[in-house]
């Protein structure tokens, strides 16, 4: 699938998901290429249809995009709940386990998600997999002692790679931390792995989002389809 086709599917999923946001809602707005189309559509609805809602964003770049349309964005601690969060995902399997953090926003994304009444992911069909892990699993780590954390991961066979930008500098998250990507190929026991990662000193958060999502809207050539998590 070429980029233009993939973008068309992402856009269709984003427009479909935008219908879930209604007047007066507090909505979590995720980060990434698919969410960009969602925010564009919400901006259009705000300007053309007078849709009024309050947004909480998972990254500074989503905030800047939303505010450019005049959408009201507030700090997460200024709201007592979030009605719905719509975000992308890098992979999602049939058990509704996902990997997120390809855009290095996993910590903020998880904080917003865990404070939301409903979580919806929008993905193109290439992100729906049988078993997660082909996409490298992002782990946010404190810069101090990061080398030791990476050594621990190496010893466990997690195949860690410190994420660098185009200039060869460490990628920094919105909280100024590093991202270490684990090249696992497949994750058969995500719960155990999540537990191991989060209890490693120096790890702030990991990109395993396990059985958290309520609905996944998949951009499909025949039109967006909705997968509903019956375990939630």
TrEMBL record:
Lineage: Bacteria, Bacillati, Actinomycetota, Actinomycetes, Bifidobacteriales
One Gene Ontology term of the molecular function aspect: ribose-5-phosphate isomerase activity
Family the UniProt entry places it in: Belongs to the ribose 5-phosphate isomerase family.
Swiss-Prot/TrEMBL catalytic activity: aldehydo-D-ribose 5-phosphate = D-ribulose 5-phosphate
Pathway: Carbohydrate degradation; pentose phosphate pathway; D-ribose 5-phosphate from D-ribulose 5-phosphate (non-oxidative stage): step 1/1
CDD domains given in the database record: RPI_A
Protein name: Ribose-5-phosphate isomerase A
Residue numbers binding substrate: 31-34, 87-90, 100-103, 127
Active-site residue list: 109 (proton acceptor)
Key word Ion transport present: no
Gene encoding the protein: rpiA
Quaternary context: Homodimer.
EC number: 5.3.1.6
Keywords for this protein: Isomerase
EC primary class: isomerase
Superkingdom in the source lineage: Bacteria
Task performed by this protein: Catalyzes the reversible conversion of ribose-5-phosphate to ribulose 5-phosphate.
